[in-house]
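Input for the complex:
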Amino acid sequence: MINAKKIREDFPMYKNVPTMSNQPLVYFDNAATTFKPQQVIDAADEYYRFFCANSHRGDYELAHTVDVKYEEARARVAKFINAETNEVAFTSGASMSLNSIAYGLAPMLEEGDEILLSEAEHASNVLPWFSVADQRRAKVTYIPLTKEGRITVENFKKAITPHTKIVSLAQVTNVLGYVVDIKTLAKIAHEHGCLFVVDAAQSVPHMKVDVKDLDCDFLAFSGHKMLGPTGIGVMFGKYELLKKMKPLMSGGGMSSRFDTCGDIAYKIPPIKFEAGTQNLSGALGLAAACDYLDSIGMDNIREHETKLRKMMIDGLKKIGNVTVYNEGAESGIVTFNINNVFAQDAASYLSYKGIAVRSGNHCAQILLSFLGTDATVRASLYLYNTEEDVRQFVEACASCGEGGNFLDAFFN
Amino acid sequence: MDHYQSPRNKKETDDPRYLTIHMKASSCVDDIYVQILYENDIVVDCLWHGVSCAISTASTSIMSEMVKGKTKKEVEYIMDNYNKMLQDQPFDEEALGEAIAFINTNKQPSRIGCATIGWRGLKNLLEGKTEEGE
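Predicted:
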């Protein structure tokens, strides 16, 4: 059981910004980014206060201290997803991780090869593949979604062909929030000789993710969606694959030697993928975020979100003027529209009631044609949300009625 | 409110005499087209269509009514005062007519984009620009 009120004491945002539009602040945009606990802020800050030297470069003691701290952070983050330490490369976030993976795997693609995605993917797991497919004259194909919007084993089997070389899917999709059975799909993909990439940006923050159990080949996530700093993320890859993969970025720190003929010897993974000075502060902050989440317990977080989500769905059903697009989703994401109110107007109205939600296409443009709407509103939960938050939200949705009441907030 | 529920001039024409601009907001879903028939320095007709929230629907609807029959200079005077109002600066109330309903937008800066998307499209058209804008 989570005591969300107690947890809030760790988050300076709740102290510094207790209200929005003179109402208690309800932060329901956790799928976009999360607040940070003091422990993470302190850990990130410590780098600038106590260890401010560059990593992997210096012979002096201070530089060595940074190396130790940075590698400790890597080991901590690796443990969080049950990876080996040398299988975790730091990146700027899930987008960069997915780009590194896509461009890194590009050389293995030949004309006519297929990259299998789904229609529910975030732009970060679509656009790099478009670009790579274009480069290699390969093709992007899609797993058809069920009527509910899910990816099923059955549909996956239908979509995978002898030409499929790479499968890349979100473990939890950012609009509909269904949990995809990665373990089963990865097994099938491997039987077909495909590589399996997981976009874990919406899963790692909210549930236990074990890369060995999933047996995925690559996995990407961001720090800022899991209480960590912005500008830090992770690219996991099986070591043997990382060894073969070309780095997207090259530069300082990742090569062991090179000559004027252009012959380069890269360092071994994961350093090979970390060109230039890294976000050292961010890495220390992310390690602290892993500590924080583990101290609460990922299963407890999941249970807390499930409980609040159920309360939210029940509440929205009772008031009756809301269409929910993902009632059965297992994550903390609720995607909805208030009937006859354009998504952005609904989100503005909710802001006037103190509630932060997101409207739009949520970087998943392809999905909206599937849902048959131009835009949706998304409320996404996390460990510090409370039952009071949910009540305030449901009441606000109920008062955002038809006939333009929602516009009073704007015009009056 | 009325302009949101029954927007005026919300239709599309393929009449080649009309100038068309596509305005696609980068930070929200608003995605509209503004079309004008602009002859002898007069906005003879102003149409629009597309996907839009209540604020952009109402503001573009009001705009499409207000600017009809006006010269470029007259339209620019309205635009100038409309922008001043949104920025909480002194403005000529009489010039704005129904558009004065948007006076509170200056307290909700996140919606200024919605309240001006149609106007910005029209401005581009009057300057002879038809390239997609934001």
